[in-house]
Structure to design on (557 residues):
């Protein structure tokens, strides 16, 4: 589950204190996204994450708008795949680099695969995601947008496969605008919500983009 | 008007945590042309606390200015703290206070009794300092700010510079650290009464007594620890010439600050201080909480004194008699790779 905290306009230590409270009540594997309006607050949040040995990352949404994601401890034996692991030293407090390179990104922009009969397209897409789970090398990230967003929400035939991929460390990110547009925001069943900045950055920085 | 609501707005995390970051300030000051006058013994090129201007061979004036938003809820105590903090700059130079002027920012539609309490607290501290309050200037503003411009006197040969330490000097800190962290915890309702009492006692204590005490010894450098935290002010004191070794178990601090730092009741100012010192401090086996205490911006903090090694013990014994936690925290050494080495247990 993803928890959102809008701590913009609040002075330190309020963003950290609010994030800490949510972390304390969060379930294993939860993600806490805290929006803040200055870099110092980003650094203070990441400082807490380092001390609590939690994975974290941040991105810049715009001027005076930063999002820090902190990953609550996962279930036993599960590791979180992020740009900064929990064991990195405290030197990294201010140096969390959101740019990732050498990654494979799978883009699912539709709930159907290929042009032609739509029933066939749906079957093919389900097959493709199932096939993904049995690959020797898994992708780093799966991006879902437009009709693709329907694959990661309740009622999708591919949920089990996507959950399996996520449990193996694949980052599953669904476009928030799309979920909103289709009225599926509350129905997201696997992975996290993302935005166009992140989608663009993931694709730009990927070594390989796979689009079935 | 709801009084509680007022109080929350009154104290929004002020004191020296409200200072601009040291890096930011340096960039701006670089752009300003420096004026020269041979009688200006200390100006802003040595990042000192105040200006010292020589009038005669045996007389100079010390001039300082300091003001900030409230860091505690009680206006009377805020007035005392703000005044003690402003007066401290004179004491950090080794001077004596003569006159003070109030600097006031206050919302037009607020209860003037609040302002009255602030100024009463301030005036009591000026009186205790042996000075006289001689006027002031006030403007309507959205947020409360208060402080003083202070004039003091000093013998031109007896000015404590803040950048003249020598190799082997002992470093003494005359007040406990942690006031910033405790005020921050208090602002969100997490500080114990005892912790706040200790912080208030420290912040309202004039550095007059410590300053007068250290004048008996061979002091090479002195500054007061305020917004840039202990490490930031020590860094300025060392200049480009020296490094320092600190022993974290000898650094005085208010006990609760350690636990509050562990709860991340940390200001933006502390993080700016950390960023400013990045790469220049080596912590050896020092817990995170202690690191934060060493970076913690202080309001009306103690004097940081660099003095001859032979005088260290005797001076510390004298300072202890003043009643606040204090300590001989380290030694000035030849310049090494890093500016400051902090040794843990």
């Amino acid at each position: 589950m993803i928890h959102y905290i809008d701590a913009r306009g609040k002075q330190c230590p309020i963003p950290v204190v609010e994030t800490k409270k949510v972390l304390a009540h969060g379930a294993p594997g939860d993600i806490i996204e805290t929006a803040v309006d200055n870099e110092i607050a980003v650094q203070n949040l990441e400082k807490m994450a380092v001390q609590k040995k939690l994975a974290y990352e941040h991105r810049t949404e715009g001027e005076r708008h930063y999002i820090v994601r902190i990953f609550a401890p996962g279930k036993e034996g599960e590791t979180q795949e992020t740009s900064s692991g929990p064991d990195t030293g405290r030197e990294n407090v201010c140096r969390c680099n959101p740019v990732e390179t050498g990654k494979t990104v799978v883009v699912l922009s539709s709930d159907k695969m290929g042009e032609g009969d739509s029933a066939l397209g749906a079957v093919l897409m389900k097959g493709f995601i199932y096939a993904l789970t049995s690959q020797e090398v898994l992708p780093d990230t799966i991006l879902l947008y437009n009709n693709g967003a329907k694959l990661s929400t309740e009622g999708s035939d591919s949920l089990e496969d996507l959950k399996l991929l996520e449990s193996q460390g694949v980052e599953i990110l669904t476009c928030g605008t799309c979920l909103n547009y289709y009225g599926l925001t509350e129905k997201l069943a696997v992975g996290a919500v993302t935005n166009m900045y992140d989608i663009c950055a993931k694709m730009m920085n990927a070594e390989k983009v796979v689009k079935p | 008007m709801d009084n509680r609501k007022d109080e929350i707005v009154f104290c929004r995390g002020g004191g020296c945590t409200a200072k601009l970051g040291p890096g930011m300030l340096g960039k701006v000051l670089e752009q300003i042309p420096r004026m020269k006058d041979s009688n200006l013994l200390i100006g802003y090129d040595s990042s000192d606390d105040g200006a010292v201007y020589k009038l005669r061979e045996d007389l100079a004036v010390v001039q300082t200015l300091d003001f900030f938003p409230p860091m505690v809820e009680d206006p009377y105590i805020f007035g005392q703290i703000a005044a003690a903090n402003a007066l401290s700059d004179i004491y950090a130079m080794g001077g004596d206070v003569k006159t003070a002027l109030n600097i006031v920012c206050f919302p037009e539609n607020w209860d003037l009794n609040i302002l009255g309490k602030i100024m009463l607290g301030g005036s009591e501290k000026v009186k205790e300092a042996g000075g006289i309050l001689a006027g002031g200037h006030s403007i309507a503003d959205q947020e409360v700010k208060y402080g003083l411009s202070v004039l003091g006197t000093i013998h031109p040969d007896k000015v404590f510079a803040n950048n003249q330490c020598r190799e082997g000097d002992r470093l003494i800190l005359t007040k406990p650290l942690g006031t910033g962290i405790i005020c921050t915890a208090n602002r969100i309702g997490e500080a114990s009464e005892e912790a706040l009492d200790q912080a208030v006692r420290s912040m309202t204590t004039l550095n007059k007594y410590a300053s007068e005490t250290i004048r008996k010894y061979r002091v090479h450098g002195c500054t007061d620890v305020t917004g840039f935290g202990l490490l930031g002010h020590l860094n300025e004191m060392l200049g480009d010439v020296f490094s320092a070794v600190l022993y974290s178990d000898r650094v005085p601090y208010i006990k609760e600050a350690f636990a509050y730092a562990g709860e991340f009741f940390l200001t933006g100012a502390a993080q700016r201080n950390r960023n400013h010192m990045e790469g220049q401090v080596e912590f050896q086996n020092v817990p995170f909480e202690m690191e934060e205490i060493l970076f913690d911006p202080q309001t009306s903090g103690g004097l940081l004194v660099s003095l001859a090694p032979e005088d260290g013990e005797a001076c510390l014994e004298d300072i202890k008699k003043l009643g606040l936690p204090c300590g001989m925290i380290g030694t000035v050494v030849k310049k090494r790779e890093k500016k400051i080495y902090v040794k843990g247990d």
Q: What stands out?
A: The interface with chain A takes residues 12-13, 184, 188, 263-268, 271-272, 275, 278, 288 of chain B (CB under 8 Å). DSSP finds twelve helices and 13 strands in chain B. The domain at 3-157 of chain B is CATH 3.30.1330.10 (60s Ribosomal Protein L30; Chain: A;). Chain B has two domains: 3-157, 170-343.
